[in-house]
Amino acid sequence: MDITASGLGLIFLSPLFLIVALWIKSDSPGPVFYRQSRVGRYGKDFRLFKFRSMRVGSDKKGLITVGGHDPRVTRSGYYIRKYKLDELPQLINVFIGDMSLVGPRPEVRKYVDLYTPEQLHVLDVRPGITDLASIRYRNENELLAKASDPEQYYREVVMQDKLRINLQYISDHSFFRDLKIIFMTFKVIITE
To answer: Domain limits at 10?
Structure first.
């Protein structure tokens, strides 16, 4: 199902991909796509595709984006992130088998290295484009902006809660539950 759905999605959304790509190129220098190493199933690293929403080299200044107007985010990037358009290229990752449509969001190695043995079970399944934790923390940037130490707050509070939610998902996931999560994701994007 993942391969079929992502393949159809890539074909259907190709005009939107072209529009977003032109928007990014006209707004700031650099590539259209941002590729970052993430940890996938069984702890294997893969390159995650996103539309670039930040200035080139911004990831060297920190992995956490804080607030709705992080100065590293481009003008187009603000809207691309707001409407989750930056996530669409992950359909490529789903099509080639690195990811699934629904599953725990893939994390960078820096944070995976902090997981407990129990938390490492989130790597027993393919990571996904969306999950319940992403829906719950859809305004994560704004939440982190309010923290006195965003990095620490992410590690000790947000990441821990996301892992708890994802471990619960893994213990009782099903096809119909995945469909429900997909519809919930669309609803959140459309209504916010």
So the answer is: 2-191
